[in-house]
Amino acid sequence: MQDSCVYMDKQSGKDFDRPQYKRLVRRMKKDDLLYIKSIDRLGRNYGEILEQWRVLTKEKGIDIVVLDMPLLDTRRGKDLMGTFLSDIVLQVLSFVAENERVNIRQRQAEGIAAAKARGVRFGRPPRPLPANFHSAYQRWKAKKITGTAAAKECGMPLATFRYRAAIYEKSALL
């Protein structure tokens, strides 16, 4: 009786740099059977999916069954016609998977742009300026203290002090 193993990655299938997938491929040997829920679980890049399929089926000699696409079952149709049909279905599905990934990224970018246009701010909210920022800033601008000393007084790195000083100057001009 053969033992079965389940390998599950928690990360996206956008590429093949996934620890569990790599482990699975290393352990597979000739005549093993790999079940994949859907082709986009294997990957979402057209060229990489085709290459992985080739490596798994041709080089390693394993069979693959894609559960939601019965036409992609390398156990059936080992003749020329069966292989030809499997290859065509694989290419179409790989293209669809990559195309969907491109569409998702485009919709995401459009959503982010629309949110920014509405004034939505991303990232962590800025910390309020320390109470002594104004006086340290004034002395720094008057060249009575260095930027490093002003930043230290305010309890922030020099780069942060300069960044916040630039924002402070702009807001003072308004």
What is the name of the CATH superfamily of the largest domain?
Resolvase, N-terminal catalytic domain
Task: Estimate the global geometry from the Cα principal axes.
Answer: elongated
The third-level CATH topology of the largest domain is Rossmann fold
**CATH class designation of the largest domain:** Alpha Beta
Mean of residue pLDDT? Answer: 82
Rg of Cα set: 28 Å
> What's the domain count?
2
Walkthrough of the structure:
- There is one protein chain.
- By secondary structure, the protein is mainly alpha-helical.
- It folds into two domains: 19-105, Rossmann fold (3-Layer(aba) Sandwich), CATH 3.40.50; 133-173.
- Helices cover 56% and strands 5% of the residues.
- The chain is built from seven helices and two strands.
- It has helices at 19-27, 39-42, 46-59, 80-117, 133-141, 147-154, 158-173; strands at 33-36, 63-66.
- The protein has a two-stranded parallel sheet with strand order 1-2.
- Helix 3 runs antiparallel to helix 4 and helix 5 packs antiparallel against helix 6 (147-154).
- The longest helix has 38 residues, at 80-117.
- The protein is elongated and about 85 Å long.
- The chain starts with 18 loop residues before the first helix and ends with a helix.
- 15% of the residues are buried.
Summarize the model shown.
The chain is mainly α. It has helices spanning 19-27, 39-42, 46-59, 80-117, 133-141, 147-154, 158-173; strands at 33-36, 63-66. It has two domains: 19-105, Resolvase, N-terminal catalytic domain (Rossmann fold); 133-173.
